Amino acid sequence: MTAATAADPRAAHAASVERLVAGYRAIPPGAPVRLAKTSSNLFRARSRPVRPGLDVRGLDGVLAVDVDAGTVDVGAMCTYETVVAATLPYGLVPTVVPQLRTITVGGAVTGLGIESSSFRAGLVHESVRELDILCGSGELVTATPTNAHADLFHGFPNSFGTLGYATRVRLELEPATAFVALRHLRCRSVGELQELTGSLVAAGRLDGRPVDYLDGVVFGPDESYLTVGTRTDEAGPVSDYTGQQIYYRSIRRRTSDRLTTADYLWRWDTDWFWCSRAFGAQQPLIRRLWPRRYRRSSVYAKLVALDRRWAIADRIERLHRRPALERVVQDVEIPLERSADFVDWFLGTVPIEPLWWCPLRERPGPATAGPRYPLYPLEADRTYVNVGFWSVVSGDPASPGATNRRIEDEVSRLGGHKSLYSDSYYPRAEFDARYGGDRYAVLKRRYDPQHRLLDLYAKAVQRR
């Protein structure tokens, strides 16, 4: 059974794709190419665009929910908030739902998307069944794991729009219940957190109940929590963290909790994890005056963009005769067995807390000669931990990006990776070694032979 809106959106989507393709092909060779997106979850330093981008209107809708097949077709600019609103009434959600409402499906696929189901369901791109891509060559292709464009299907994740732009994505869905029951497990060392994570990932159960979701928060070297989520339809009271109460603070006060599934999926969005405190939104008086509809990640991101545009924070630092601030906004993947080493190093080196802790594993799949997703190669049958940290530190005028560079060095030493949505400093040879440089070059030659789009190193590292 396929569920769609009364006015089938597929014809409108096709017209939007036709307009996008025509717009791309009309851009003169050598002219810069960008999408006219109204929002972004990227945090790389970059200059403001000087010309309009490609028209992506009409690519932000849900095209069809196939309940029997357990899939949903969406325009690539569709946000996960829109996807969940369409699928949850059918008792279905994507297998991985990134933490923030306005992350788009196409953005999470060409970048990386992760959440508390990733220890069993992998990253967002592992939930993709097929996708349509406008390639750098100007050709519109459909890529699947087994068709003539399987190389692009597997090489598209972590390409960040340097091979082409997704226009349609088919995502795998899984059953959802009405509620999620939570248990917050206190750990008194990061080593204990690492050990408990490994045992829960391996067992998939806690006290006889399924572990459906798993993530955690590190508040300090002797205080961290692993939160176990279990899907349930059992009726009962639920908490609401979209109002005056703040989710991450509740983890320290409660050993158990219950949320509706929708509230669980967006539990981090209301306060942008804990980053809303930078805007005063966690102060009781300000919070009461701050309209609920504006307590969301997209609003905070716009405030950050305004700060960057007008250098407000840096001006304040100069007034106090302090150096400019360095943004340390990163997610890194560390092998589980070295994750405590990394966090202990980080807490002793970088003055940022809390940290997000989220285990992940690549899904089981057919054996391949190399990494299944070469631009973000993970080892099969190995557990990693995503450690997220998002704040600022005092900058070093003599060494821009000094803290980020130290973090990159430590991540590399421990055999990890970092996501490329924020500032990166790797030298070219190391970058290529870590992000599938040889395979990427082959894909670039096939799908963007005239180099109409930036290459991945230029976009992730050099474009400042």
Overview of this protein structure:
- The chain has an eight-stranded antiparallel β-sheet, sandwiched between helices.
- The model has no long low-confidence stretch (mean pLDDT 94).
- Helix 6 packs antiparallel against helix 12 (336-349).
- It has 464 residues and is α+β, with helices and mostly antiparallel strands.
- It has a domain at 2-175: Uridine Diphospho-n-acetylenolpyruvylglucosamine Reductase, domain 3 (2-Layer Sandwich).
- The protein has helices at 10-26, 80-87, 105-110, 118-121, 150-155, 190-203, 247-253, 261-265, 284-289, 297-310, 312-319, 336-349, 402-413, 428-434, 437-447, 456-462; strands spanning 2-3, 62-66, 71-75, 92-94, 128-135, 140-143, 164-175, 179-187, 205-206, 209-210, 213-220, 223-232, 256-260, 325-335, 355-361, 383-394, 417-418.
Look up the CATH topology of the domain at 2-175: Uridine Diphospho-n-acetylenolpyruvylglucosamine Reductase, domain 3
Main β sheet profile: 8 strands, antiparallel
Q: What is the SS-derived class?
A: alpha+beta
Tally of DSSP β-strands: 17
Indicate the mean pLDDT: 94
* Distance between the amino and carboxyl termini: 48 Å
Globally, the shape reads globular
- Share of helix, binned: 25-40%
Which band does the percent of strand residues land in? 15-25%
Strand order of the largest sheet: 13-8-12-11-15-16-14-17
What's the helix count?
Answer: 16
Radius of gyration: 22 Å
Task: Identify low-pLDDT runs.
Answer: none
- What is the CATH architecture annotation of the domain at 2-175? 2-Layer Sandwich
Just give the CATH class of the domain at 2-175. Alpha Beta
